[in-house]
Amino acid sequence: MHCFYIFKDKSKTKSHKSKLAPEVKNQSKSDNKSPSSIASPRSIPEMYKEKEHNLRVFSFSELRIATTDFNRLLKLGEGGFGSVYKGTIRPANGQGDPFVVAIKKLNQQGLQGHKEWLAEVQFLGVVEHPNLVKLLGYCSVDGERGIQRLLVYEYMPNKTLEDHLFNRALPTLPWKTRLQIILGAAQGLAYLHEGLEVQVIYRDFKSSNVLLDENFKPKLSDFGLAREGPTGDRTHVSTAVVGTYGYAAPDYVETGHLTIKSDIWSFGVVLYELLTGRRTVERNRPAMEQKLLEWVKQYPADSKRFRMIIDPQLRKQYSLSAARKIAKLADGCLNKNAKDRPTMSQVVESLKQAIEDSEGGASSEKIGPKSSRSNPVTSNQQLHQMGVTDTMAHIAWPRDNSIRAGMNA
């Protein structure tokens, strides 16, 4: 799966001083707005205006020093937007010890530009939840040397859920840890859908966008594609289709009609990744197994064959009863009729029940003895103490497996 865009960047660059907040335009309007939706809630740009003072405005020179002139040895990731570097900055008041951050730098030749950068600033400048990555500040400079757009995030030392599910060089992610991670991600999505004045549609939920902190607590990141949900009597937001191949809801891909149910489909895909340890598409497998969602259909949750899809790396150290619940939940999220998919609040409750089952509520279906494998949380913390996890750090980033289209969305 490869990353692509179908658009022309029609944005005209305007002169910005590095110490000014990024230009805010009301982007909440959509082409299906109803005349009756007069008393609509505040838009994200309007809410951002009240909170923009909470973000620190960095000079370009500060961030260049923080990354040792963007030294490639400090590069944590790379994608369509540009590159992400590990950096060290001092507190804004100049007092206290320096601390580590992740700095995303816009690729000046890239197709994903100011629009995504601005979306991240505005959405992350407004939202506040323990399962969403924290944006510390930004840099916006237009000068003789060109346009500089950078974002500064909290540093997440344990990479992503994707890394721990699919990278065999890392310790196997234990069953209960997987459930705690996906529960936290669900709580973050529930907050976006239901916890703000306006619905926020994340639009790019996938395992590579679930970051893990030093305690393996999950945080969603990469809000460049996020959109405000419909308001008033509108049922959807009409957009050009963007997202990631294998994760985007088919109803959204076919119609361009975006709702929070699009996020729920994507969540269902990740649930099956969690269960199987397989990517949504794996071309190196036999034809019948290349597409994850097609493959798992052969092993229904209530069948005796179901356990055959469970990630073999778990070595049977999981609750079969909880796994069945997770598969049924995933099937609900993947319902072809978007209206029949559960809400994220319902998803959260279902996951909590699965966790209870894994903690002894369904001992009769427990598979295998207690795991003797090392817990990756412990092992990674030990590595961190030795200074090794610096090389493992990652901030969620559009990878080569991203497929995107239509930045006019």
From TrEMBL:
- Identify the Pfam families for this entry: Pkinase
Lineage top rank: taxon: Eukaryota
Keywords in alphabetical order, please.
ATP-binding, Kinase, Nucleotide-binding, Serine/threonine-protein kinase, Transferase
Q: Region (Disordered): which ranges?
A: 11-43, 353-380
Q: What class of enzyme is it?
A: transferase
- What Gene Ontology molecular function terms does this protein carry? ATP binding; protein serine/threonine kinase activity
Please note every region of biased composition (Low complexity): 34-43
List all Basic and acidic residues biased stretches: 20-32
What EC number(s) would the UniProt record show?
2.7.11.1
Q: Where is the composition biased (Polar residues)?
A: 371-380
The name this protein carries in UniProt is non-specific serine/threonine protein kinase
Name the species this protein comes from.
Answer: Nyssa sinensis
